[in-house]
Amino acid sequence: MFNLQTATSEQMAKLLPYLKVFSSLNEKVYRWTNGRMMGKLGGRDVCLVTMTGAKSGKTRVVPLMHVPYKDGVLIVASQGGAPKNPVWFNNLVVNPDIDVQYKSNKMQLRARRVDGEEKQALWPVCCEHYPDYDLYQQRAERDIPVFICEPR
Fold first, then answer.
1. In this predicted structure, what is the pLDDT of residue 19?
2. Fewer C-beta neighbours within 10 Å, C or N terminus of the chain?
3. Are 89 and 145 in contact (CB under 8 A)?
4. Are 93 and 57 a contacting pair, CB within 8 Å?
5. CA distances from 80 to 103, 135, 142 (A)
6. Are the beta carbons of 61 and 49 closer than 8 angstroms?
7. Contacts 24+ apart (CB under 8 A), 128-131
8. Rounded-to-integer distance, Cα 26 and Cα 38, Å
9. Is residue 113 within 8 Å of residue 77, measured between CB atoms?
10. In the chain, which stretches have pLDDT less than 70?
11. Exposure pattern of 90-102 as b/e (b: 16+ CB <10 Å)?
12. Distance of alpha carbon 2 from alpha carbon 27, whole angstroms
């Protein structure tokens, strides 16, 4: 049986094609119910992040785990500890202006990748909110990026 907590990075990579289908359904139900349905994953809150595709320029909506932080959110590009950054990672790097919906609260934010000391300070905050991030970092063969998303 497949277990997200004990899955290897290779097993996580095989799961990725199914996430697209789930994400599309998740977005529709989330918007329709303001997050009352499909607003949690593993008991943790999810938000919808609307972004612009790095290559296509098209609008993309991705349901993501997030960490409430000041007047915005922290977003962790963990992808469950998969070997590569999630596809949306490049979108935020190239087009950092995003819209975030958390339940019925909608925010216009700008994402900025944090590095070095700032990440060291924010990582415990992320893991306190969602302890599995530490597990994901242990199994990932990459440094998991963190974005601070602040009002624009």
1. 65
2. N
3. yes
4. no
5. 23, 9, 12
6. yes
7. 129/44, 129/67, 129/68, 130/44, 130/65, 130/67, 130/76
8. 6
9. no
10. 1-9, 12-13, 15-16, 18-22
11. ebbbeebebebbb
12. 24
